[in-house]
Amino acid sequence: MSTLFDLSGKHALLTGGTGALGTAMARGLLAAGARVALLSRNPENLQSAADELGADAGAVILLRGDVTDRQSLEAARDELKSKWGKLDILVNAAGGNRAGATIGPEQTFFDLNLEDFAGVSKLNLDGTVIPSLIFGQLITEGAGGSIVNISSMAADRAITRVVGYSAAKAGIDNFTRWLAVEMARKYDGRVRVNAIAPGFFIGEQNRRLLLEEDGSLTARGKTIIASTPMNRFGKAEELITTLVYLCADASSFVTGIVVPVDGGFSAFSGV
């Protein structure tokens, strides 16, 4: 591997690293040479993800923490610092949706559940800002590094139903740009902040929305594929090279961008 993409000696923390996409990203960071800390509030999910990764002892550490709870993240930070002494990379991949923050086919906007809307914003947007506060400071105390946020196609395009998720991810895009400028100006360019905007990938949360029990496409799945020039869903491993690039020296003059990994979805007009 080119030294520009080599993460050997780097220490990375991944929130939301126990899901399908997060586990793939953790595997990619490990393959590039980094040590990886997985953070989740669920110890069973943490252990399951670690077992799936099958990394050498010492290459992966498991941290309990809730991305919306500053106190729990401070405890996780202290544990990480005691084990590793530093942090170079933060990947904010925790996120999700709630039924009440979506508008079903038979509903209108006026059926929106404000409590669920706030909950989705808290998980996705606050769950990116708070880890950046706690772990980003640890990055500034060392030689610097990279923060990578996970956005979505829903941030930039009006995608039906997912009103709460869309608003939260749009906030992440803006926060990414703001923090990139702040970090570059205050820390001599040593800390870079970027985001990845995945297109449509199959995960546990959206599987039933996109696929029938027999694996065929639902009506919504067909609409998405028709709007994706590459005519398929993404594969989790297809996020890895973009992530490694944004974490490595290869992107040392890159900050404040949101990179689509979407099979052409964001480029297609539908005509």
UniProtKB/TrEMBL annotation:
It holds the Pfam family adh_short_C2. It comes from the Bacteria. Gene3D superfamilies: NAD(P)-binding Rossmann-like Domain (3.40.50.720). GO terms for molecular function: oxidoreductase activity, acting on the CH-OH group of donors, NAD or NADP as acceptor. Keywords: Oxidoreductase. InterPro entries: KR_dom (IPR057326), NAD(P)-bd_dom_sf (IPR036291), Sc_DH/Rdtase_CS (IPR020904), SDR_fam (IPR002347). Residues 10-156 form the Ketoreductase domain. NCBIfam families: PRK08277.1. Belongs to the short-chain dehydrogenases/reductases (SDR) family. This is SDR family oxidoreductase. The lineage of its organism: Bacteria, Pseudomonadati, Bacteroidota, Saprospiria, Saprospirales.
